[in-house]
Input
Amino acid sequence: MAARIRKLIVQVDETLREMNHAVEPPTRRALAMAVIENPCAGRYVENLDELVAIGEELGGLLGRRCVEALGIAPAQAQSYGKAAIVGEAGELEHAAAILHPKMGATLRAAVEKGAALVPSAKKRGGLGTAIDVPLGHKDAAFVRSHFDAIEARVSDAPRANEIVVAIAVTDSGRPLARVGGLKASEIKGEDGLR
Amino acid sequence: MIEIRRILSQVEDIHHEFGPVAAVAPRRGWIAAVLTNPFARRYVADILPMMEALNPVGLDMAHRLRASMDVPVERIEAYGKGAIVGSAGELEHGALWHVPGGYAMRELLGWKGDRAAYARGEGEKKTGQPGNALAIVPSTKKVGAPGTTLDVPLTHINASYVRSHFDAVEVRVPGAPAPDELVFILAMSTGARVHARVGGLKAADIAQWDGLR
Output
């Protein structure tokens, strides 16, 4: 079943200066959010396949929206992350059904490759609840310059029977990354870690 | 004087609000620029040079917002603007945005008036022509901490009294403004509230072309 989408929101956050230093090139992070109806709200549902299918659909849709908003080729995406906020009449496992089984494959198609785990966060919340979507390098999870998070929030969602689903994609790491560790230029990008 | 630290934009498609799904979802967008506040931490009497310096910033933001909304200018039906001043600044610093922010959007949408005259505080002659951003751009401003939300009002671009287009969009930049920063905001939308049905002046009935009705 297709996701019943009430709102689609796309954000681009570009940092040009930080602490009086120019950031060159500017870091850019895109965030795409869908506010959807939770078909399993208000009762215990054993089989969550419907939500799994919604996750598969939204991985592609939101991933593509991020890439389009950044105006980049899919291969230029550098880091990604995902998150869901389940409304009060839903269950944390509903977020898990959307995020974990099938969302990754369609998201990876939207950003190309994506050997690394897609870092995630989930919570239950009311209207305007914020969630920090974790970000990690898409091909090598240990790239330290790309460990980051971006806040996702929709002022009028989630209603009790809704879920806010968020995907973030960047074309860069933190603005003035300088705490060492594995660099993006040094990765093999095969095992998803280094 | 102008130092832009960060630019954040958001575009939102509203398919429904628990009523009939819209054939064409209204699209609301906003753009926020985070700038260094050159007047932070002290009283500066003459702040007007910054108003002048903000003109190209306003134009650039208006164009960027239109581009991120990905619609032709003819589809923009409502607008608004706002400012959030960091805690080491003064509300009056936010007021610097009125002329450069408002007139940038109006010019983008086809307004043909005299911006310099407005900046001097003079009234403008309405052209009487439909469709050229005749209405005042509504606004809000506040002094706030990083992540403060600002509700930016939206009204019809040609007639402030069009009831279906009275709206507001919540703007929030996580992490900004820092004490010495200013957040300047522009907002636009393609139409009425998704299920507007409380009567009043309709956009189709604008007749006076005086910016109000």
About this structure: Chain A touches chain B through 20 residues (CB under 8 Å). The mean pLDDT of chain A is 96.
